[in-house]
Amino acid sequence: MANFNLILPEIFISLAIMFFLIIGVFKKNSSSLIYNLSTISLVILLALIYNLNSVPDTSLFNKSYKIDNLATFMKLLMIGSGIFVMLTSSKYIQINKINKIEYPVLILSSILGMMVMISSNDLMVFYMGLELQSLALYVLASFNRENLLSTEAGLKYFVLSALSSGLLLYGCSLVYGFAETTNFNEILTNSGDEQHGLTFGIVFILVGLAFKISAVPFHMWAPDVYEGSPTSITIFFAILPKIAALTAFIRFLYVPFANMTGEWQMIIVFISIASMVFGAVAAIGQKNLKRLAAYSSIGHMGYALAGVSTGTNQGIQSSIIYMSIYLVMNLAFFSCLFMLRRNDEYYEKIEDLSGLSKNHPILAFSLLIILFSLAGIPPLAGFFAKFYIFMAVIEQSMYFLAIIGLLSTVVAAFYYLRIIKVIYFDFEKEKYETNHHLGLKVTLVLSTIFILVYFIYPSGLTEIVSKINII
Amino acid sequence: MNFPILSSLILLPTIGALFILFTRSSSGKYQSSKYVALFISLANFLLSLYLWHIFDKTSVDFQFLESKEWLVGFINYKVGVDGISILFIILTTFITPICVILVNATIKNKPKDFLVAILIMETFMIGVFCSLDLVVFYLFFEAGLIPMFLIIGIWGGERRVYSAFKFFLYTLLGSVLMLIAIISIYWMTGTTDVEKLYEIGIDAKYQNLLWLAFFSSFAVKTPMWPVHTWLPDAHVEAPTAGSVLLAAILLKMAGYGFIRFSLGLFPIASEYFVPLIYTLSLIAIVYTSLVALMQEDMKKLIAYSSVAHMGFVTLGIFTMTQQGIEGSIFQMISHGLVSAALFLCVGVVYERFHTRLISKYGGLVSIMPKFAIVFMVFTLGALGLPGTSGFVGEFLVLMGTFKKNFLVAIIASLGVILGAAYMLWLYKRIIFGEIFNNEIKSMVDLKIFEIIILFSLVIPIIFFGFHPEPLMSSIEASVENVLNMYNLNLTNNLAYKN
User: Fold this and answer.
1) Which residue range(s) make up the domain with B408?
2) How far is B374 from chain A (nearest CA, A)?
3) How far, in Å, CA of A290 to CA of A379, rounded?
4) Are A421 and B72 an interchain contact pair (Cβ–Cβ within 8 Å)?
5) What does the pLDDT average to over A107-136?
6) CB–CB contact A417 B138 (8 Å)
7) Residue of A414, B35, B153, B402 with fewest CB within 10 Å of its CB?
8) Is B157 exposed, middle or buried (CB count within 10 Å of its CB: 0-12, 13-18, 19+)?
9) What was the pLDDT predicted at A94?
């Protein structure tokens, strides 16, 4: 029964999903009830996972499911940000009339899928988790079905994502064919030197994963889907699947393919450089804040992958720190977006921010801090995220990657500055409403304070993350 | 003594800024924040004077050391001062109250936020001058971009957006390479603690690249030709208080960095790159002086003269002689005072007449006699007349240069002549001549707060011109130490090669 305790979080969330569906069927007008219950169940889930904090590394179900420090920490990150996503978007979905009962249920299913992805130690289990989260996300992207952009986003995401899932599955079958097993640890022992078939498998799997994390050159869906989806889903897209996919990257590269660093390192370095440069350059021309967030997240994934590409524990840890800080910055950024509301309409163009500093000085100041942090200017949290990454990268003497990465931060700084310019230097427009609900305010204040004062005690996060040793 | 005096110097302005930030409410309360800012900045000035008083001038070690674990296992927060950095700290704390008074008198739009920006800026600037860890230094060095960007962008002139962007991106681009160098140094030696690095030394074969990475950052900030173009734009568009901060202190960060890091950490590379620095400095001195001659905008003229003066500074530092380095430091302090004063003077006439074009002025002497007198003092200070602080610095730099390279010294001396030319011509066109513009007649002479500010600058400029001893005695031991270390490293390396 020890096994049962370890997957209690997954069992709990599955039961919760079914229970909420049943309530939804039998009780009319229960959408906001289910929404609140889902948020509460996420909090319980967080507690359950936190409970596994001190459990030593264990593999369950014929070694196909793994509970270790990496899985626990990433799940905590993911579900913690999931709670804040739910808190920030409750009013948005009411106003946009997408507060159906399916909405929270789909979010929970997607989270369940990601939890399976994070913990998986077997190709089959991994693929099932991946598909569960993807299928839920297809529906969520097109949830605002009256809106043309939203349906387009959902369809686009579905077609491209299905393609990439197919490639990934093809890669999995290649790996199975050449390594004669689906278990990660056994793949490691079966993989030798002259295994070209395996190399192909790795490439296909990496393509699929790069798609999920929206890294260049598999990023094309991101801007359209980010822009078209309801903002409450965009924030979800920007944070949770990325955490899961990055964990999958780490797992794949450092467990089954740990012997083949030579084969995959070049690929990851290329993807990382391409994402950093493209994310920085392509964002310059954007007018829509959600689209801009998409390009900026492409760039940020480039930095996170730079840490993964190093092949050291320090690199992995720096990526995880990067993800933690990235998710806080994104939560803060999207909270600001949720605050641009006037007469039940949300504004999402850069020009809508014009002169915000005169009408809403506190909101403008938060955005200022968030944007400088996203640009990586010290002493804000974003700088430390990049600092750890480059520490790890330069330790491995990958100067080329470091120089390109830092130069693209300068380019990226330009478009963040452009938003700050609009906020602070331009003339003011109409005021926005200020009666935001508590969850949104709390999220913005907490995340901004985190970004602002991170530099006082940066070691706290590092200490927690330093327990994660993959190699 | 356990009282963390340096950390208090660093933190005090931020505490003041937070106080102002959180007491914001009705517009009537602006009065209080004005006095808070003035009080905090003056308190910081007194604290730094006290620091100078108890500072042991005969010792070459870093004093008032504070070290605290920060990034556990990696990097410690470490601050300390020696004879060189303490002068820059005092310069910073001296200029900041002037800016605060200036903001109170001249800025109408959101003065409170301006005060917050200035106080935060002071924190970062003091941090730069006393940090003894490369990462901490980088942190303060870069962080200063944020408030300065806002100062130029929010309170600047017509082309403020362009100038603010140019300033920010130029400086950031220069600095990222320095970050790579800092991290590389960490992995090579296992520490970024400056004191330890002085002892360990850095492998000679990497020094050139690392030196260039640091140089890219400092050259932009100094600014050296050909990456100086952000400076005239930033100066012209920045509000007067911003220009004063920029000219008086921000530019000095780079000169300080050259002495502390380029000479201290990479002596072999510094020796190797001396011709490069000489060339760039000479071009800066001669070329930008000529450019300054042709300017029609007062602020631009002074900005270009700053580039020329900073050319003397870099030249002096890389002569590697006692006189040269002492002269450079003196020149930086003096330029900090003089250029701040000149920008203030431009601010004074701009406030009244709302143009910076030299051709619109003329004959101010009969309308604003007091202004004409103080402006005269500052003009003479800028062109380095004996008896002003400008003379001491330039003279020592040239003396150091003559010791090393005769030709370079002669070309640099040209800069002194050109400097006299553009400054005196500027003075002539503004102050003397016919009053052809009737609007000028309505201008009033200096107000009381302007007299206070300007006289507080006249006094040190003349005092240190006649009596440079207090500054010299403070830097002497430290400069000697820098040079000794430098020569020791150099001979060790030569011996090792042979």
Assistant:
1) 285-498
2) 35
3) 26
4) no
5) 92
6) no
7) B35
8) middle
9) 87
